[in-house]
Amino acid sequence: MALDTAASLTDFRPIGEQDEDDDAAALLAALDGPALLLDHNRIVGLVTTEAARLLALDPAAPRAGAPLATILARTRLAPGARAALAELALAAAPSACRLSDATGGGMAAQRISLPRRRVALLLRPDQARTEPEPRLRADPLTGLPDRASFHATLVARLAAEPGALGLIVLDIDRFWIINDTLGPQVGDQLLATLAARLRTALRSSDLPARLDGDEFAVLVGEGVGPEELDGLARRLMDGLSRPYLLAGQPVTVGLSVGIARAPEDGVAADTLLRCATSALHAAKAAGKGRCATFMPEMHARSETRRQMETDLRRAFALRQFTLHYQPQVDVSSNRLFGFEALLRWQHPTGSAVSPAEFVPLAEEIGLMAPIGAWVLATACKEAAGWPAPLAVAVNVSALQFEQGDLLAAVGDALSRSGLAPHRLEIEVTESALLANPEATMAVLRQLRASGVRIAMDDFGTGYSSLTRLQSFPFDKIKIDRSFVSGARGVAEGRAIVRAIAGLGASLGMRTIAEGVETLEQLERVRAEGCTEVQGYLFGRPVPAADVPAMIARFASAPMPVG
Amino acid sequence: MSGKDSARLFRVIYVSRNRIPDVAAARQAEIGRILSTARAANARAGITGALLFNRAGFAQVLEGPLPAVGATFERILRDPRHGDVVVLESVPVTERAFPGWSMAFVGEAAGTNAAIDRDPAEAARVLGLLRDLVATTVETTV
Question: Out of A11, A144, A453, B104, which could bridge A475 as a Cys pair, Cβ 3.0 to 4.6 Å?
Answer without folding.
Answer: A453
